[in-house]
Fold:
Amino acid sequence: MNRAASQKRASDYLYPPIDPFDQRILPVSDGHRIYVEQCGNPDGIPVVVLHGGPGGGCSPAMRRYFDPNTYRVILFDQRGCGRSRPHASVMQNTTWHLVDDIEAIRNTLDIATWDVFGGSWGATLALIYAETHPEAVSNLILRGVFLMTQAELDWFYGGGAAQFWPDVWARFVNMIPEEERDDLIGAYAKRLFSGNMMEETRFARAWSAWENGLASIYSEGTSGESPAEYARAFARLENHYFKNKGFLEVDGQILRDADKIADIPTTIVQGRFDMICPPASAHKLAAALPRSDLRMIPLAGHALSEAGISAELVRVMDKLRYGRSAAAPA
Structure:
């Protein structure tokens, strides 16, 4: 990406804003109800978008990475966040529940196969879903790869990223008494699930600020204060999943099972200076998948909102249109 391109905003590369042609609340298991929407071409190439976090929720901007004349775009809020209910709930909320929810959406919408598009935790979930249901996946499009390993958690919550951002790290760590700082995920869990709404919100905002402050190479360690409801769901769900190691059987499970998705065409878009999900994970994944294409974006971090990341993702989805059928829009 040249200097002129780096001065553009991510929105400069996206398709114009669009509204959904279908919105619904889908009852799934254990009393959870998830928000699902469809936009673009109802007869187009189906693509499901998996948001990050866990707990981040989907946003209108996520609709805009796809040519609306070509793609049938499906977005949903994962259990416990966004417009899904119960809000901020971790009960019966695991990776495997989410995999089942994705299948419930596919079957409800009568889709045989679809592209799976996900970033950060969304990339993690996309990989686990594909390894569980490879027959349902036409293409994987991944951004900011997170393999849900202990090494990655240690990097971000054990002092690795802190070597680059000691001032931001200090704000995150100083919320916790010194004697508990050897396990920050566990220490934050006590506060995020204390039952005291004010305490949960205060620590949720601190948890969110540490991550959001490092998301973009342009953020300089700062981020606006997240709304209380959003921060609480985001922090509680992330912490719940990370405390439980993503509910995987073994550390490194995604790479262990990579042979199950060896035949799925996979494109990986990775920021060279991603402080949240360092490029080593994307490199390892690409090495394990013979049909993968790793695109390392210079002068880019983790955020979907970075211009170089957005430009490449739109380019990838535009290229994937060729040679595939989509009915003309109504």
Remarks:
- The two ends are 37 Å apart (CA to CA).
- The chain has eleven helices and eight strands.
